[in-house]
Amino acid sequence: MQIRISDDALAVACGADAVAHRFAEFGHDVVRTSSWGMHWLEPLVEIDGIGYGPAAAADVENILAGKADAIRIGRIAEHPFIAAQTRLTFARAGWTRPLSLEDYAATGGWGGLKQARALSAEAIVEEVTRSGLRGRGGAGFPAGIKWNTVRLAPGTRKYIVCNADEGDSGTFADRMLMEGDPFMLIEGMAIAGLATGADKGFVYIRSEYPHAVAKMRAAVRLAAPLIAPFEIDVRVGAGAYVCGEETSLLNSIEGKRGEVRAKPPLPAHDGLFGCPTVINNVLTLAATPFVLAKGARAYADYGMGRSRGTMPVQLAGNVKHGGLFETAFGITLGELVEKIGGGTANGRPVRAVQVGGPLGAYFPPALFDTPFDYEAFTAVDGLIGHGGITVFDDSVDMAAQARFAFEFCAAESCGKCTPCRIGAVRGRETMDRMIAGERTADNLTLVADLCETMKFGSLCALGGFTPYPVMSAITHFPEDFDARGQAAAE
């Protein structure tokens, strides 16, 4: 009997290796696959399409004896969490073996690269531009414009850099893709190389992702003959949040301190080692094989407004059904949290969700009708960011969360610019006084002024985006701030 179990880092952390070992002891053929993304069910065991999860080694005998109804979830592909998705980037999730070239080719792999090789660089860029694909790392900048800028930039050498420094808390889509479908990222980078004239690429991964590093290195070795003359190196960073910023990342690859560079010049003109460089996130590059293979229209038909295609949304925090849910833009925030995520894991009411990582805005349930769309989120002073949604129940202290934003920025700042380096520290100190009930109104005004300075004066998004969680907490949850002043007065 063939037993399918994911070797994704989260599944392994939940005990997948022990479950797999136990099945092997009974003489069964255990196949390690990519993850379906239903993290609350890991380790998830699949036998003839039927899932059992979360499974423990002690459950193996009951599963084999047909006595595991308590953890039997039925046919995985028909599970509501999977059936409700539109999977373009994660179409192979759960189905294929991550390092199997045979599986990748059998499921349409290399089709995008084959099509790209038949086109001119200009035509490839045009296809990506017409697809409406925007950077999935957080900025949402049109990928086609960035590629075209590098294509047209003068230079004897150009580079493709994949930003795999996934530092946002509650996000894991980059890691899942690198561990589960690494050839798709490699194919996307090779396509970007053809489009821009680059023959060298780098994947920059944080050291906290050892499984992803191992998978990418192995996949790069296996795929090298198929993408030649394009070459890829995997570089491992120490895990500094600011190294997810594109110019800090370039410095890190060059062996320098991970500090941001003032812009201009843009990396598209003067990037890695002074050469024109495309820097895209994992999900952005991994989306391009579909665009080339199926055509720009097929991708652009999904989504709403200027947000085209799909977004792998990551549900985390205090949520009942945590995991990866890929969907077309336009679904509402409330649907994602309440319907897909199932509300909180502990059953308490949802009070807030933070969208876009530790520097994303907090949303109250009153804004749950906001469509998941770049412009719609901007209209309510929020960010989609990397697509991470972290759920909090009604016990959360939003003043403490606002303080955490300053504390996080202070810890992760590279120190290059004053608004970020000093502003974050002064913000944390001011929040401490406010939380202590000291001159609440005056300190809130000071925090607002400080946020204005950081937003418009910082060199990069670390300092520039810290005001989002702070000000959204103050705006949408004023009772957590005002009450402290009242309590102190009494």
Condensed summary:
The protein is of the alpha/beta class. It has helices at 9-13, 16-25, 60-64, 80-83, 101-106, 111-117, 121-131, 143-152, 173-180, 182-196, 210-227, 246-253, 282-294, 296-300, 333-340, 374-379, 398-412, 418-435, 440-457, 461-465, 467-476, 479-489; strands spanning 2-6, 29-33, 45-47, 50-52, 72-75, 159-164, 200-206, 231-237, 277-281, 303-304, 307-308, 310-317, 323-328, 350-355, 361-363, 388-393.
Describe what this molecule looks like in 3D.
This protein is an alpha/beta fold and 490 residues long. It is 44% helix and 16% strand. The strands form four sheets. Strands 2-1-3-4-5 form a five-stranded mixed sheet, covered by helices on one side. A five-stranded mixed sheet has the order 13-12-16-14-15, with helices on both faces. Strands 8-7-6-9 form a four-stranded parallel sheet, with helices on both faces. Helix 6 packs parallel to helix 10, helix 7 runs antiparallel to helix 8 and helix 10 packs across helix 13.
Tags for this entry?
single chain; alpha/beta; five-stranded mixed β-sheet; 22 helices
Helical coverage, percent range: 40-55%
Q: List the total number of helices.
A: 22
- Strand arrangement, largest sheet? 2-1-3-4-5
Number of strands: 16
Computed structural class: alpha/beta
Strand content: 15-25%
Oligomer classification: single chain
Q: What is the radius of gyration?
A: 23 Å
Mean pLDDT reading: 96
Low-confidence stretches: none
Mass-distribution shape: globular
Largest sheet: 5 strands, mixed
How far from one another are the termini?
70 Å
